[in-house]
Amino acid sequence: MSKVYLSHNNLLSAYGFDSLAAITKIKQERSSLRLIDDPNILSKTVCTSRIVTEKLKEAFGLLNPKESYTRLEQLLIISLEKTIKASGLPLNERVGLLISTTKGNIDALDTRNPFDEERAYLHVLGEKIKTFFGFHHDAMVLSNACVSGVLAIATAKRFIAQGTYDHVFVAGGDLVTKFILSGFNAFQALSDAPCKPYDKNRTGINIGEVGASILITKDSGALAKESVVLLGEASCNDANHISGPSRTGEGLFRSIESAMKQADVSAAEIDTISAHGTATMFNDEMESIAFNRVGLQDTPLNSLKGYFGHTLGASGLLETIVGMHSLHQNTLFCSKGFEELGVSEPLNVIDKTTPKPIDIFLKTASGFGGCNTAAIFKKVAE
Amino acid sequence: MATTHYIEHYCRITEGRISKNGTLVFESGETEFSDFIKSAYKTLRIDYSKFFKMDSLSKLALVAADLLLLDEPEKNMALVFSNRASSLDTDRKHQQSIQDSESYYPSPAVFVYTLPNICLGEISIKHRLFSENGFFIFNRFKAGNLFDYANSLLAMQKAEKVLCGWVDFDCEKYDAFLYVVAKNGTFTHSKERINQLYQTL
User: Fold this and answer.
1) Are B125 and A241 a contacting pair at CB < 8 A?
2) Would you tell me how many other CB atoms lie within 10 Å of the CB of residue A66?
3) List of chain B residues whose C-beta atoms are within 8 Å of the C-beta of residue A138
4) What is the pLDDT of residue A382?
5) What is the interface pTM, i.e. ipTM, of the complex?
């Protein structure tokens, strides 16, 4: 099979409206998480990362929209517009569109929301994005809990390998909504301070909001300078519990093993890991077990949740894009919020942003429904 | 050259009827989905202790999958499901529980089902499947996408077999159509055949 590349990309986040805006601040170890009081989303103080609405409106207005679009549609459209433009690709029959989201326009279910309830159907979201740009094919929407973003990258590769498309634009996004916050709060999983993945004093997760997009292509010409090759990927279920991870990290362990086998890469060849690291007790503990089982306990690892919070269906895509820039800049990014190891198995958590020649990274994610995904990426030789 | 795959078994649940490989295995005049699926669960002797705690989408998916997986020894079976309404039936329940501050009572037991792939987790738990999962949302049944994705998983040796299909539950309307793609079987695995099996009730 020919190689599949991850190329032009965009991150629309509280840091700014392109990937480098976020990368620059991450390098400086600056979080975008803030405490906010907004009774429309939760009756108590929430620690979150949200895109400034005025800036979003301004950027979206420049695209001359012909109808009203929801906040999430605006996020995805602004991000995709930049990625499509950077790629210079015509949107013909060889180009696919894949959208990664857990809840889409779920805010449309709220009776106070100006949009019709119909808008909460994920295929309607897909149709809006497709039509805005004039994609040839219907959008495929992938909704597979918190692994959606990484799984979308794997899925794009699989459709390219199968000959369905030559290029796939993947866009991921989820909003910070009352729907989501009330649910995680009911699970008593929300932290009211910036999260501390893998740390002894961690207090739970933060939910954040980004729009992310990337071009996945089999064409090695005109790649972005931070491009990577997807060497191997896998997604395995824990077959254990729908809302709690396996105690043995079974699904994650199997996912990493399978991805390594396909990539033909040993544990020693993986330079760094961009892990899931939600900063909940169960998740972080499970990951430490899985990484040890596969022999990656000494590999420098970070969670980016301390910068953006957990951005749900976008998180795996967002974190893969940051990982690409980490390779390109030969820099290990600090796992923000980490001070003292608070999991039972050893991990080499990156406690300071450090320059280092790096070529290969592993991205992992785990989510409700017992799903886990791992993907291994290699820098494109310049 | 691409290897030919086959559709080994298929099943359908809709409008009060459950069939396997074209043969009716259960029929009921119950008008409420909850009553219908409860009767089916008992008649078909499905055994899963969590069944009555699950949401409608998971019940529908679990019963459909059980028809095809009960006698299935292969555990390297990927699950590739799709639907139109995602988990909206349960999403609406969660939304109702948070809509008004006077009657605010979000429940973790409801919230966890506000993801369509939870039903894949339930099936994986019941049948001990540590396999590939994927849940897609389309505006209608799309054989082409499922066909390509299943072929890709088999070609990359990510699975020995793939349990594919459609499980949709929305406003009391339910429709499940699942089929197993394997190296041997009755029908050649093709978009046309998948559509034909889906269209014949």
Assistant:
1) yes
2) 8
3) 138-139, 142
4) 63
5) 0.97
